[in-house]
Amino acid sequence: MKKLLLIFFLLLFVALAYYYFYYHGQSFISPLGKGSAKEKPLVVYTFENLRKTVFPKSNITVGQQISETSDFITQMFYFSVSQTPKSTVMKKVSGVLNSPKKPGIYPVIVMFRGFVPQETYKPGIGTQPSAKVFAQHGFITLAPDFLGYGESADASKDSFEDRFKTYTTALTLLSSLETLNSGLEASYSGTIKADMTKIGIWGHSNGGQIALMALAITRASYPTVLWAPVSKSFPYSILYYTDEFDDQGKSLRKALSRFEEDYGTEAFSPPNYYHWIKAPLQIHQGEADQEVPLWWSDDLVATLKKDNIDVKYLTYPGADHNLLPSGWSSAVTSSIAFYDEYFNR
Predict the structure, then answer these.
(1) Does 3.40.50.1820 match the CATH number of domain 40-343?
(2) How much is the CA Rg of the chain, to the nearest whole Å?
(3) Of 78, 189, 208, 234, which residue is the least packed, with the fewest Cβ within 10 Å?
(4) Residues 38-78: pLDDT tens digits?
(5) Domain chopping of the chain, boundaries
(6) Which of helix, strand or coil describes residue 235?
């Protein structure tokens, strides 16, 4: 009888341990004492899982005016993103909106900036110089600040989750664009409207990687312009910049070692999914760029063409990461022509 009771309680213990592991993802010590199961919360950010995620349609609202010219108005705008994919807890994200002043219906360009330190960041940094020209030529532009920047809610304390949340923020904004006209109606009484059939994307540097990710995940056909996009594999794309850190990247390498032990990197690496892209692209690259080397964009274009993706490639001798001094004006003009070409088909 004692042996039967012992077997019963042993089986009960195993069953309970399995239940908590399977349904709650909690760590537990196995009956044999050989180890524990570890939670992996960041697995929701793999490309495959993001592709399966339905991103909420957040209401886009237009806020206070920042500046005004004879041609366009610059204002803050706001929307909300899920705290984690599929979470019902929402976090505010701010951004900068430019709209032409003349009444009409205008195409929309969603703009993703590159990296800017939080301590020096102001809304519009990285996008506003180009956005102003786009607005002058009849485009509505939207540039999100991302979590932790501008008037947005705090970023994740996990550096890798913080990075992946730029992806979910971009995807949420794109899915929320159909609410933009409600926000414009409240601000402009219907005189300014967005043409939801004409949506494009613009990205610079790390914002270019965010744009590539969004195109791959959504498989949408938004015509997209990229300036010096970060396009190499993860984590090489961040390790390349560790010489700019105060500790030369020591803490990042430690964190990355733990990340690779728990997750690996292949399922999080954008180049593995570029073949999903269905949109036409125009890529601009400065030949003297020290932040995104010329050969990165050379390789990206070759990869895209190999996958039969429509891509136009322009390079600028002597131009740096911001396409200065020899390429900026030409790049803006070519970008506008590119959007017009696809929007007017």
Answers:
(1) yes
(2) 23
(3) 189
(4) 678 999 999 999 999 999 999 999 999 999 999 999 999 99
(5) 1-39, 40-343
(6) coil
